[in-house]
Write a structure and sequence with these properties.
Elements: H1 9-27, E1 34-38, H2 44-51, E2 55-60, H3 63-76, E3 80-84, E4 97-103, H4 112-122, E5 123-134, H5 138-155, H6 168-178, E6 180-194, H7 197-203, H8 208-219, H9 223-237, E7 244-257
């Protein structure tokens, strides 16, 4: 179980901000519309939507990240109603939202059908829902796969089965069951930067997901092996010999409530 309030998710949130900006631009919230940012983290999408004049609710299960988001809202002088809650039981009334946004949040739901039903429940008639999802390709995916291979060898367990959020046909079918119509899917690239591949991998040790698997890795004495396997992938893929730059592909799914 990942504790998203642990470690240093703030660093990742900064990295993901361009994807949040893309999602909000596609959502195009209008002044006065109600926007709900689901699994909002430190509030990237919520803050951008609030700056457009929308009435924004941000929901996340990690109380610490919500405090970070509230401080950011105060600094930016925007009004966002941040609420602690689970994405499978959102603290939002039925048919409240004109727009629902989730930037790499709903894709981590343990029960994808239930998660989409919740998004449909809070959406008003014709409400727009925008979800971002990683495509299992590119250097960051390869880096995580390298780590996964080591963990798989240590634990002798197959990797967990996850819903294919990158598969538009699978998403369309699941959404239809929930009461959402998938109207468009577009592809995008997220630039990932750091001073070096080594620095990026070292900083990633404080990501909540890395912290969740660290005890298994450390018990097996495989920490150095994991770090080197991940770093080797990024060295090979690096686009900037003077620093570190790669691009991670992702999708934006656009839905309408039906």
């Amino acid at each position: 179980m990942v504790d998203w309030g642990a470690g240093n998710y703030e660093r990742t949130a900064v990295e993901l901000e361009p994807a949040a900006r893309t999602a909000v631009e596609i959502a195009a919230p209008r002044p006065g519309e109600v926007v709900v940012d689901v699994a909002c983290g430190t509030g990237n999408a919520a803050l951008l939507a609030a700056a457009s004049g929308a009435q924004v609710i941000g929901v996340d299960a990690a109380a610490r990240l919500l405090e970070v988001a509230r401080r950011a809202a105060a600094e930016q002088a925007v009004d966002v109603d941040f609420r602690e809650g689970d994405l499978l039981d959102l603290p939002v009334l039925d048919a409240t939202a004109d727009v629902v946004v989730s930037v790499f949040g709903v894709i981590f739901a343990g029960d994808p059908p239930a998660a989409l039903r919740e998004l449909a429940r809070i959406s008003g008639p014709g409400g727009r829902t925008i979800l971002t999802a990683w495509i299992p390709a590119g250097p960051i995916d390869a880096m995580l796969s390298a780590m996964g291979r080591v963990i798989g060898r240590i634990t002798q367990a197959p990797p967990p089965r996850r819903f294919p959020w990158h598969d538009a046909d699978a998403v369309r079918a699941l959404a239809a069951e929930a009461g959402l119509e998938l109207v468009r899917t577009t592809s995008h690239q997220l630039p990932i930067r750091d001073s070096s591949p080594e620095s990026y991998v070292a900083a990633g040790r404080e990501h909540p997901m890395a912290l969740a698997v660290r005890p298994v890795i450390e018990r097996a004495g495989a920490g150095e092996e994991v770090q080197e396997a991940m770093t080797a992938v990024l060295r090979e893929a690096n686009e900037d010999p003077a620093a570190f730059l790669v691009h991670s592909p992702y999708l934006v799914h656009e839905f309408r409530a039906v």
